[in-house]
Fold this sequence. Notes:
Layout lengths: L1 H16 L22 E2 L2 E7 L2 E2 L7 E2 L2 E8 L2 E2 L27 H70 L23
Antiparallel strand pairs: 1-6, 2-5, 3-4
Amino acid sequence: MKYLVLIPLVLVASCASHPKPRISVKAARSSAVEPVEAARYGDVVRAYHVGRSIDPNHPETMHEGHPIYRIEAAARWDLHPGSRNDANLLNPPPDAAFSLPPTNDAIIAEMARQREATDRVMREAAQLAQSFGELQSFLNEMRNVARNDALLTARLANAERRLAEFEKEMLMLAAPASPMTNDAPAFAPDLPGAPEP
Length: 197
């Protein structure tokens, strides 16, 4: 029985000789840990509207128009360094393989030259539009002048025609009627423009 008491002591001693390693887990400060949205992109879901359709498996069944939601891009991990606090979490960021076009002094100078040329063309186009507007107003005025000139010419021709008719009538009235009798003609005043006897 002595040996039976020693067996548990040997087992306890053998366990005590190998201490268990302690793992300490400390809670991180909340300010150091980013929210989960900063570590993972969500699904990109788009809605499509489908009109009325017949079920291909059941031709006697018709579906009314309704939206269909499709996952365009599945959720994935954010492998970009830094925080995304300023990013819109509803849309995924642009493709990581995209890089801006190279810029150097020659490209910047050419872009500045193109901007100046564009500004010059825009100014000249504005001047041309203004000149065109002035030309249009001048042409409208010239049309009015030509129309008025045609009206005045027609009125003058009409007035000259009427004046000629009046002169004929005056000459006819001023012409002495041939007397049928042997009596002397009565006194007739001279008309202006009448021929002298």
